[in-house]
Amino acid sequence: MSDIVSGVTVGLVALPLAMAFAISSGVPPESGLYCAVVAGFLISALGGSKVQIGGPTGAFVVVVAGIIAKHGIDGLFMCTMMAGVVLFLMGATGLGSAVKFIPRPVVVGFTNGIAVLIASTQIKDFFGLQVDKVPGEFLMRMEVLAGGARTLSPVATGLAVGSLAVILLFNRFVKRVPGSIVALFLGTVVAVVAHLSVETIGSRFGGIPSGFPHLVMPKFRPDLISPLIPSVMTVAMLGAIESLLSAVVADRMSGDKHDPNTELMAQGVANIASPLVGGLPATGAIARTATNIRSGAKTPVSGMVHALTLLAVLLFAAPLAKQIPLAVLAAILMVVSYNMGEWREIPTIVRTGKADAAVWLITFGLTVFADLTVAVEAGMVLAALLYIQKVTTTTTVTEVTPEDVESGIEHSLQAHQLPEGVSVFRIHGPFLFGSTDKLDAVSDSLDSLGPVVVLRLRNMTAIDATGLHAIEELAQKLRASGREIILCGAREQPRLLMERTAFHRHIGDSNIVSSFGVAVRRAEELLGQMSA
After folding, report:
1. Pair 331, 160: CB distance under 8 Å
2. Is 453 helix (H, G, I), strand (E, B) or coil?
3. How many angstroms separate the CA atoms of 228 and 209, rounded?
4. Among 72-81, 88-97, 208-217, 407-416, which stretch is predicted with the lowest mean pLDDT?
């Protein structure tokens, strides 16, 4: 029963988002709904995460708009199906785990840039500007929108601001009720009852067709295969990144563990099927997945019910959608773009060091001012260079002195008796993006661990922002289970990085110690406090 309730809830949440993503991408709103119905059902039925919700997402808005502008709707459908094949092959050949080799600064740069681009596409409808054609390039778009500022509609702006306020208030004080649904309903009622002169789905698109999505084979154009390859790789990489990030979030919230390769194969099947009904590219949706879990989802049934809920809307309530004001949908997407931005991670990345900060800034800048294809390509190159830089700067050759031998005793495992109730794990080598999943060895054995867990860092030669993030998440899991974590023996590079990023806030000052000997004494102290 909980899966049915959560499925209906997330289906209602997905309703305005699916339409808004489609409209922002330059296609009719039903394309977003068709994608959410077909791809959403397949991703839940076949995927490697029990509670993942799939469908159209903000990450694809700018990409889809660019593909349509260059190659038309046939190009979009071809690109989506080709990307689906790539995703399926990635999963079938075990490359689902390869996404972990994208470092945190690159991922955050992508999401920050996409968030800015989505917000910029909503300015026209949010303020009701009378602009004939909004350019696809960011700078030209902002120039055109600024030139049309004097055509601002006070009615549309007031409706958008009011909708925005409703969403924020409900998200802050009434979290069990989706603010976007309340804003959609109230905004539409106000516009209809007060006869507001604002643009609606009906006035721009003529409404949404009622009934089942029609199965149509997209037109295959061999001449587009070569020009579409960069866009195909962009859609595939974004789909893989976002779906697996969403699955990781789902794991953290639900306590489950997803299969990345099965998930990518399901994403591939969904993206092959979506264009057959005129749908958009699909991937895992982090916000809708989180809503699904918070609503009580336990199995893939909730995701399938979510898709069936949207199908029911298409069958029985499609004519009502033509009354929905575009200003309300713009307000909803403004909130989505802000929430997907991961803005809180920027200060940590900047404090991590100049290299990580430069990678984030370059990825962000290319995403906004160039295009996502260039940003993906540059991000992968930067990831490789960053990995090489991290490893080489921590490689040293030094003479062993008597002082080194003496100081090493305090770090020795054999020199200290381990108290009962203490579990010890150690990290060997560089703990950088691409290797952080090895920390699952700790969380996977959570039930068998003692009350205190010591993470020995003596032989960890280097760490980056992704590694710090992984240890932070482990600390949160251990604390949630009633356990304490102690970090000990960090070498110079990891120690300085932890100091720069104020990492002690996540672990506690007294739980980051200089050696294994001090860690044992701290563990005895914590065990005494727990038994008191």
Report:
1. yes
2. strand
3. 30
4. 407-416
Q: Which residues of 372-397 are buried (b: 16+ CB within 10 A; e: fewer)?
A: bbebbbbbeebbeebbeebeeebeee
d(CA 284, CA 327): 26
**Range with the poorest average pLDDT among 39-53, 266-280, 373-387:** 373-387
Would you call 275 exposed, middle or buried from its count of C-beta atoms within 10 A (0-12, 13-18, 19+)?
buried
Find where tokens 């099965």 sit.
Answer: 262
Q: Give the C-alpha separation, 144 to 142, whole Å.
A: 6
Start-end of H helices in 317-426: 326-339, 345-352, 354-369, 372-393, 402-408
Q: What is the dihedral of CA 148, 115, 283, 122, to 10 degrees?
A: -20
* Residue ranges of E strands in 149-289: 283-284
Strand 283-284, strand 54-55: pairing: antiparallel
**Amino acid 328: pLDDT:** 93
- Asked whether residue 213 carries a pLDDT value surpassing 70, the answer given is yes
Residues 455/487, Cβ–Cβ less than 8 Å: yes
For the chain, the average pLDDT equals 87
- What gap in Å lies between CA 227 and CA 70, rounded to an integer? 10
pLDDT for 331: 92
Rounded CA separation 196/323 (Å): 11
From the list 294, 284, 257, 321, the residue with the least C-alpha distance to 5 is 294
Instruction: Output the six-digit token pair for 151.
Output: 């055509």
pLDDT digits (tens, 9 = 90+) for 157-203: 999 999 999 999 998 888 777 888 899 999 999 999 999 999 999 88
Residue with tokens 């909708």: 163
The CA distance from 449 to 442, in Å, is: 8
Question: What residues does 55 pair with on adjacent strands?
Answer: 283
The percentage of the chain sitting over the pLDDT mark of 70, rounded to a whole number, equals: 97
